[in-house]
Structures are given as C-alpha cells and as structure tokens.
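ok new one. same drill as before - structure tokens go in, u give me an amino acid for every spot. 157 of them this time. try not to just spam alanines like last time pls lmao
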C-alpha cells in the first residue's frame, strides 16, 4: 500500500514538472540589461572644428578618436534603450549608430546653474524594433575630459 502511494505521488510530481516547462518556455523577457562605464575623452571636438574638422557628434565616426568614446551594444530583441551620461562638465553629446547611420541623437545637455546642484546630464532614448548591433558614440563637444555613462535596455512587452 505504501509503495502505491509513493509511486502515485512521484508520478503526479513528474507530470507537474512537465506541465511547468511550456509555461517557462513561453515566458516573455521582463528584465532589463544594464551597463555602467567610465568615459574619458581628453580632447573636445570643438578643438577639431576650429581647424576645419568635424563639428557634430553625428560626424564622429572619424579619425578624431580622442574626441569621442564608443560603446558597442547589441540589442537582444525588440525593446527600449536609454543612455544617460552624467558626472561631466560642459557640453557632451551622444549619438546611436546602426549599420553606420545615425538613428538617434541625445537631447540637449541639461546643465545645473550651480555645481552644488549636480552634474550635467545628457540622455538618449531609442526603440529597437528588431535585435541587432549598434554603436553608442559619446562626444566631448566642449567640456571636461571625464564622465560616466550608463545604458539600460528594457525588452518590449
């Protein structure tokens, strides 16, 4: 009798485990992908502009590598990417490239009136409709050399 009850309980537990597999397989991504990184851009892009060089961050796939920082990003699926630059002084810009083309530019740099109010902030948001590689290009247009960056990708619902 005890053997039949144990066998029946084991069978029920095994079936419950098999039934749970499709539920897990159908589960949509609800998590985010996040990365924080330090940015060091020693020469402002404005220095090149004064000598007939590049004047905008969208032109930054250039030899002026000391005026911009590149972060590779691969969208794992459709979703929303938010890039935020902080802890820098002056005017920095951020542009997202896909297949060598600029697809989005950050908004204007929000600069506090007093340094005690915090640092400047630059934000870019972009919606990916499909997975694929991209480049986040950060430019020091006219500002200090160091800052911090962060991106957060949220899967589409």
């Amino acid at each position: 009798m005890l053997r039949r009850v144990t066998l029946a309980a084991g069978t029920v537990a095994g079936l419950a485990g098999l039934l749970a597999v499709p539920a897990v397989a159908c589960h949509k991504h609800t998590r985010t992908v996040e990365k924080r990184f330090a940015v060091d851009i020693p020469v402002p892009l404005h220095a090149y502009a004064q000598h007939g060089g590049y004047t905008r961050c969208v032109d930054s796939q250039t030899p002026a590598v000391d005026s911009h920082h590149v972060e590779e990003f691969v969208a794992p699926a459709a979703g929303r990417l938010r890039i935020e630059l902080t802890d820098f002084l002056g005017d920095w810009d951020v542009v997202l490239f896909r297949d060598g083309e600029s697809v989005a530019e950050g908004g204007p740099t929000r600069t506090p009136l007093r340094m005690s109010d915090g640092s400047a902030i630059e934000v870019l948001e972009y919606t990916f409709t499909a997975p694929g590689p991209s480049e986040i290009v950060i430019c020091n247009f006219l500002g200090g050399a160091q800052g911090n960056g962060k991106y957060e990708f949220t899967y589409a619902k």
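Residues 5-9, 15-27 have pLDDT under 50 and may be disordered. and btw The longest helix spans residues 2-26.
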